[in-house]
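Appendix B, record 7
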Amino acid sequence: MRQFLDVGTGLPTADNTHEVAQRVAPDSRIVYVDNDPIVLAHASALLTSTPEGRTAYLDADLYDPEAVLKAAAGTLDLSRPVGLMILNTLGHVAEYDRARELVRRLMAGLPAGSHLVISDSTATSEGMIAASEAYNASGAVPYYVRPVAEIAGFFDGLELVEPGVVRVPEWRPGPSDGVEAAAAVDAYCGVGRKP
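Structure tokens (predicted):
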């Protein structure tokens, strides 16, 4: 995989998608998508590329998948596989069916061999449910936690990559990742390949 579409990227931090991808393959192309003006300001300053690759930022909205794909085609070759990343973003879409439809429309514009990566907080503990309710009552942009089965439903029609839909720290853990950390995380993730 040499092309990545990171939808709902949020504020740049350490080891952003382009840094990790271009460290492994300097010719990788990455497109970040968000609609937050604060993210845009930081992205413009911090998201640079290797000379061999390309990194771009789109001021675009998850709710318009076709416009996202059209704009991304300025940097990515959409006739070749793309890694679509939607990390901790779908929780902002209140209606589950609408969230699934947005994912389906994005994947429909990508060729066979593309991969979908999703992670989101889940309604797997009373503490997380209470925290979500308090956050949503605060006036912030709401974030809805979902059952694990709904996270898994985003991958319908795709070939799940092992180990499937699991808690984030359990997805290919490194030698220093402990079971204790996994037990404390109310976020699940998965990777699916478009056949």
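Remarks on this record: The mean pLDDT is 88. The first helix runs from residue 17 to 24.
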